Amino acid sequence: MARATLISDPTGAAASALTLEALRDVPPRSHRELTRIALIGNPNSGKSSLFNQLTGLNQKVGNFPGVTVDRKTGISQLTAQHRAEIIDLPGTYSLYPKSLDEKVITDLLYDQASDQYPDFVVVTVDASNLRRNLLLFTQLADLGLPAVLALNMMDVAEQHGVQIDIMALQQELGVPIIPMNARKGVGIAALKIVMSRQLGAPTKSFYEPGEDLLPMIRQIRYYFNLHNDYLALHYAHQFRQISFLTADDKTYIAELVEKYDFQPTPRQAQETIDRYARVNDILLNTVTVVRTEKNEPYSNKLDKVLTHKVWGYLIFFGILFLMFQAVFAWASYPMELIDEGVTWINQLVQTNFDGPLVSLLTEGVLAGLGGVLIFIPQIALLFAFIAVLEETGYMARVTFMMDRIMRKFGLNGKSIVPLISGVACAVPAIMSARTIENWKDRIITIFVTPLMSCSARIPVYTVLIALVVPPTKVLGIFNLQGIALMGLYLLGFFAAIFSAWVLKLILRTQNKSYFIMEFPVYRWPRWKNVGLTIVEKVKTFVFQAGKVIVAISVILWVLASYGPGNALEQAETRARTTAAQQQLSAEETDIRIASEKLENSYAGLFGRTLEPAIRPLGFDWKIGIALITSFAAREVFVGTISTIYSVGQDADMRTVQQKLAAEKDENGQPFFTPARAFSLLVFYVFAMQCMSTLAVVYRETKGWKWPLMQLFYMTGLAYVSSLIVYQLFK
Amino acid sequence: MSIRPAQAQPHAPRSVKDLRLGESGTICCLQDPEMALKLLEMGCIPGTEVRLNSRAPLGCPITLVVGNEDYTLSLRVSEAATILLKD
């Protein structure tokens, strides 16, 4: 099971230690309900690997009650009869939250009355870095939470020559310890056995708050009916941030804190120092480091290149470029397959059935669904790239290299993660800004992240670029379309950076920004983790965004198929009369009727109302309709124009691109000139057209001020830029 | 153990910021009480040895190896300046 050296205890003191054998006598948990187990540990301690090993594909992502941070839960089959719900908590170094991300943990663990309160916790600990990892464990143990210690990364510890006397450590810590290697699945079976048992509270405590604090602590403890002193102490430290306390509760604690002159900062510092001293003592008796001569770690050697002045940045931009090429070039093959598949089904339905419902199904539902499904390859590829960069530890290097530069623009090295993730989707990206401790840095990051071109813009970019940029090869390898795509991404990026700089000048704050973070060693990505991330993101997209897109497609179909009063009948009659006068063929007549009907439908009405405002940008009422629907979500654009232009067009006009290329202006020239296409592209780069993003910014900033400012700023920027582009190039 | 520097230093104390690449020093105290909370949690306890491991291409941030374990911390130069070293 474990490759660590297990030293037997010569004194026989291990008899009282918690061993796996001893645990066999502990009765299994009652099966009345699902056991709730929280997974907690330092960042980079292999927590997500363990979560994935325990739950596999049985995961779901929801929100913590009341907050928007992702709450990942999964069901694990511990034994044949016993299933447990596993809650994956964000990584943290201590129970004193330094960022919003970590606050989720204290909100969960402080509220014993909550129905979300875990039955016990599994603490993951990096065996190669026990000292710092055990700090969090000792705090959890002092909260009195039943716990199991998953001593992870035993293989790494062994490579470093760290030998751990597990029996002795188990006795010192007072909880069962399972040595494991979660990446390889070693130790999972043993952990599951322990997890299926009824665990008692830890038998050891590691820190005494100090006699002088007891009067205050006891008052808090009895007032809130808490089960131990240490929890009461945490209330005194953090009452302002605890979300479930009422205003009265907070006032009560505030008065006590004042009365006893409680100084949180020095107390917390002293607690950390005391705990480290205690952990040092424990490690002295239980851990020996055998091999002291150290080769230069391979991570350091890699860093010499990957964070080099020149190579570092070149490699980073190379990776970004590869990412865009992948999304544009590699994804196009599966995308074509999906496109053709949907078209094929559509034609199958159209040729075999008839009636108004069929038209709703093909032009409404299927057209919308196609617009959702076609995204999957690109989203999967983007998230695969981001997951690999995170998994390997490379993202931390990017943060490290970019901090100095980002700071000039009012951002933070850590802003790079939301900005790069923003290329996939602004919603998770904005939530990932929670790791930024500084309020101003975080607000600026949140504000500018939606300017990064997200994957929802890809279809718009793809369709329009393919329309006006030839797929010529440049320098033999680069595709001109790929370069145009990268140009749009860069445009968004520079807009984000520039906006950040402006905000930096406007916003005032007292808070200091800091950048103290662990620099993880390079690791091979765990493909299972990458795979599960992709599945999770694609699922979220298809079910969350998909619902909106299909719904809007259906609404659009209705709006495009019906008009006020008998406007449509009149339009048809008019079209027939003109067609007869001009002696058009039957086919041309049909097209004339369809376009005349669309113009007079509800959708046409909306578009026409908007047309005067967008005509200077080169847009007509049809694009106007697409813009309106895009305000729900950008990805609707392609679906919308596909619906609008498919109403009454030939069946052989299969793809959206062909439909757009066939569109003619009043003079019979192709409507989508480069000036129009680029104006539209620039509009989509800048405009805030995503309800989900606005909703998440509202929740993350706790108010409408920032989302509304974003909406007006970005849309204004889009309008002005589009205007300039169209007027310059037309 | 105080997390504030001793009063009336005869000469300006050295801080982690003054370390040369590869040089080690022992932490004496942490100057900024707020930042100290985070640094302490990350293992920068007074008495711990730290080694300047690398600098970012633009000179800031830097990375430190904390303690005798292979654990690397990255922080800005301004933050490193708050970690004073023993003589």
UniProtKB/TrEMBL annotation, chain A:
Subcellular location: Cell inner membrane; Cell membrane
Keyword tags: Cell membrane, GTP-binding, Ion transport, Iron, Iron transport, Membrane, Nucleotide-binding, Transmembrane, Transmembrane helix, Transport
Domain FeoB-type G, chain residue ranges per copy: 34-201
CDD domains: FeoB
Top-rank taxon, per record: Bacteria
Protein's membrane topology: Multi-pass membrane protein
Similarity section: Belongs to the TRAFAC class TrmE-Era-EngA-EngB-Septin-like GTPase superfamily. FeoB GTPase (TC 9.A.8) family.
Functional note: Probable transporter of a GTP-driven Fe(2+) uptake system.
Descriptive protein name: Ferrous iron transport protein B
Naturally occurring in which organism (per UniProt): Hymenobacter nitidus
UniProtKB/TrEMBL annotation, chain B:
Keywords: Iron
Domain Ferrous iron transporter FeoA-like: 14-87
InterPro entries the record matches: Fe-transptr_FeoA-like, FeoA, FeoA_core_dom, Transcriptional_repressor_C
SMART domains per record: FeoA
Protein name in the entry: Ferrous iron transport protein A
Native organism: Hymenobacter nitidus
Taxonomic lineage from the root: Bacteria, Pseudomonadati, Bacteroidota, Cytophagia, Cytophagales
